[in-house]
């Protein structure tokens, strides 16, 4: 089993200002040794470590962790995709096979960011280095994301956390329409991750999440969905075991082959983990 979405950090209240007091339990260090027993308990053998800070130091930090922890099978780092010297930077990072792709925290950007010429030009360079791109957005940014991915028919994209539907308020209709639209692009995959923190923390029920899972599975199919935990952020609303068991229960009626795809082989394929 592969967990396609995990974070690590050495907590710094300035660098990690996004971790508010409401998220107090996250205001500490989270390292691979904290996660490894949980992975072992849940039968997860590999993970993708995803950036949580927008700096190249973050990519270096994840590289150092991967060097010492072989269960980190891939890294989604950060690079300034608007930098004039981006091609040189991508060439540098391509020397590290564990670096599989990049992510920008677009959810924190203003409207129109995905249309910026410099950013679009940066994305154009990723394909030639076989780098993936993780799309991190809120539901109100889905329309813009649809226009964005339509420009790149051959770039491998993956939608993090199903575009963060507003489960706590049971808003689904517009999100559903736009998820179905973005999924028409066969180069766009989706991570089933982060949903428990979009529901009411520690108050959600299984039936609160199932309608959203229905939309994602109907839209992307089991060939383009990856299991992810979003550990440790997900600890705000659940345990690792509870989230994994929920998804396994949801997939009880699926074939063994389909389960294997969602929990393992799709991650290997998307992030090119065999290389």
Strand and helix layout:
Layout (H helix, E strand, L loop, with lengths): L1 E5 L25 H10 L4 E5 L5 H13 L3 E6 L8 H8 L5 E6 L12 H10 L5 E4 L6 H8 L7 E3 L13 H10 L5 E5 L13 H15 L4 E3 L12 H11 L5 H15 L5
Parallel strand pairs: 1-2, 2-3, 3-4, 4-5, 5-6, 6-7, 7-8
Word description of this protein:
This protein is α/β, with parallel strands linked by helices. The chain has a single domain, classed as TIM Barrel (Alpha-Beta Barrel), CATH 3.20.20.140. 36% of the residues lie in helices and 13% in strands. The protein is built from nine helices and eight strands. Strands 1-2-3-4-5-6-7-8 form an eight-stranded parallel sheet. The radius of gyration is 17 Å and the shape is globular.
Sheet/helix structural class: alpha/beta
Shape from CA axes? globular
Instruction: Say how many strands there are.
Output: 8
Q: Poorly predicted ranges (pLDDT <50, ≥5 residues)?
A: none
Fill in the CATH topology: TIM Barrel
Give me the side-by-side strand order of the main sheet. 1-2-3-4-5-6-7-8
Topology pattern, helix = H, strand = E: EHEHEHEHEHEHEHEHH
Total of domains: 1
- How many distinct helices? 9
* Average pLDDT, all residues: 97
Q: State the end-to-end CA separation.
A: 18 Å
**Cα gyration radius (Å):** 17 Å
CATH domain class name: Alpha Beta
CATH superfamily: Metal-dependent hydrolases
Bin the helical content: 25-40%
Largest sheet: 8 strands, parallel
A few lines on this structure:
36% of the residues lie in helices and 13% in strands. The chain is of the alpha/beta class and 275 residues long. The mean pLDDT is 97.
């Amino acid at each position: 089993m592969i967990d396609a979405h995990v974070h690590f950090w050495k907590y710094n209240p300035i660098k990690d200002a996004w971790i508010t007091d409401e998220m107090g339990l996250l205001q500490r260090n989270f390292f691979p040794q904290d996660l490894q027993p949980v992975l072992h308990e849940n039968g997860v053998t590999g993970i993708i470590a995803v950036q949580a800070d927008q700096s190249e130091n973050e990519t270096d930090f994840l590289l150092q962790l991967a060097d010492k922890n072989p269960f980190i099978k891939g890294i989604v780092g950060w690079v300034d995709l608007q930098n004039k010297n981006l091609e040189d930077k991508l060439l540098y990072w391509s020397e590290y096979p564990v670096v599989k792709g990049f992510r920008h925290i677009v959810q924190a950007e203003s409207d129109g960011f995905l249309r910026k010429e410099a950013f679009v030009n940066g994305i154009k360079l990723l394909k030639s280095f076989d780098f993936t791109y993780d799309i991190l957005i809120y539901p109100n940014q889905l329309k813009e994301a649809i226009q964005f991915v339509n420009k790149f028919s051959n770039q491998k994209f993956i939608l993090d956390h199903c575009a963060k539907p507003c489960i706590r308020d049971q808003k689904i209709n517009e999100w559903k329409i736009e998820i179905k639209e973005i999924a028409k692009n066969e180069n766009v995959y989706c991570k089933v991750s982060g949903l428990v923190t979009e529901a009411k923390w520690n108050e959600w029920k299984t039936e609160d999440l199932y309608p959203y899972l229905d939309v994602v599975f109907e839209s992307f199919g089991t060939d383009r969905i990856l299991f992810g935990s979003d550990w440790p952020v997900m600890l705000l609303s659940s345990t690792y075991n509870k989230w994994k068991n929920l998804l396994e229960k949801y997939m009880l009626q699926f074939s063994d082959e389909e389960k294997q795809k969602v929990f393992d082989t799709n991650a290997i394929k998307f992030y090119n983990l065999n290389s």
